[in-house]
């Protein structure tokens, strides 16, 4: 298991973290985001989309369940499982064809983690007493993510 914990301050640093990770993502990658409400999950995906070259608005898929953004580096699928009751509902959405050909970010990703053993996990939380600071715990078991996590671990900051 490869692990690192970072701190970001404000939207700018959350976006910078997303840009650093975007430099290494390729179609087929899945990023599972967890954390309480307002911890920065959607902000991270917005930063990732911009870093991948997308220029339009990126909105939370809480009510639509999934949004697809066409970027110069291929599709970015932004999913949210907050309103789903179980893994079957997720599988029934029919997004299987996208997982091999897009970068996929899944908010509230804990529900589907077993389906994506090679995913990069990002657990975001608000630092108590510091509304603009976020703790971002990154973890992955797939060798594919070793360099990404270790590179981020050397700084401790976005």
Automatic annotation (TrEMBL):
Entry keyword DNA damage: no
Q: Which InterPro entries match?
A: P-loop_NTPase, T6A_TsaE
Where does it primarily localize?
cytoplasm
Entry keywords, A to Z: ATP-binding, Cytoplasm, Magnesium, Metal-binding, Nucleotide-binding, tRNA processing
Q: Could you tell me where this protein is found in the cell?
A: Cytoplasm
SUPFAM superfamilies recorded: P-loop containing nucleoside triphosphate hydrolases
Q: Does the keyword Magnesium apply?
A: yes
NCBIfam families found in the cross-reference section: T6A_YjeE
Question: What PANTHER family does the entry give?
Answer: TRNA THREONYLCARBAMOYLADENOSINE BIOSYNTHESIS PROTEIN TSAE (PTHR33540:SF2)
The UniProt function text for this chain reads: Required for the formation of a threonylcarbamoyl group on adenosine at position 37 (t(6)A37) in tRNAs that read codons beginning with adenine. Is involved in the transfer of the threonylcarbamoyl moiety of threonylcarbamoyl-AMP (TC-AMP) to the N6 group of A37, together with TsaD and TsaB. TsaE seems to play an indirect role in the t(6)A biosynthesis pathway, possibly in regulating the core enzymatic function of TsaD.
Q: Which family does it belong to?
A: Belongs to the TsaE family.
* Protein name (record): tRNA threonylcarbamoyladenosine biosynthesis protein TsaE
User: Can you name the source organism?
Assistant: Spongisporangium articulatum
Q: Which gene encodes it?
A: tsaE
